[in-house]
Amino acid sequence: MTPTRGQAQPALALLLVLLLGALALSFAGDKDVPKETFRARVVNIGGNLPSGTGLLWMTVESWSTDQEREALLRGLQARGNEGLTDAMHKMDKGYVRFQDNLRWKVNHAVSIDTPDGRKIRLVTERPITFVETGASLRSQDYTVGVIEFTLPTSGKPGEGVLIPAAKVSINEAAKSIEIETPPGNTAPMQLTSVELYKKK
What we know:
The protein has two helices and eleven strands; from the N terminus they run βαββαββββββββ. The chain is of the alpha+beta class. It has one domain. Strands 1, 2, 3, 4, 5, 6, 7, 8, 9, 10 and 11 form an eleven-stranded antiparallel sheet that branches. The N and C termini lie far apart (about 40 Å).
């Protein structure tokens, strides 16, 4: 399903439900695990951001705990997207870097073992936009960036998606968490050649 920007996305709603732990999942929340760095090639597949590709580096220094996940849900339930970002502001799990210059703090990081491989989900408290001067990208409403990718059990490079800017809300009628992207802007981007980076 291709998302329609400016509206809440059911497909992406499931992503956030899984991401924030509204479903029972296995979380890696051990703060003593070694730091891990992942490398991916990001491809702009829509929106009005610059076309082309570039390298995205994702470093996780610690994984989110169940208590931190619950704090995010409480913030979201109490004050919506603003409450979520306020809760995330207190959390620091690593950083995302595009090429050699732009960098964003990772506030929420989850690693889940699935039949298809290891699934990684990262959330930032500010948009992951590669051009930060456009007025349309500075909306106070779309404050969250989301990354998800899977590392296959075969050991081959993985794939994923990057949602540069989003607004999160709770749909009380549907009893679900929804994510909305800005109208006419920042469509999800494809992540390819994703791998765990190891220094040689």
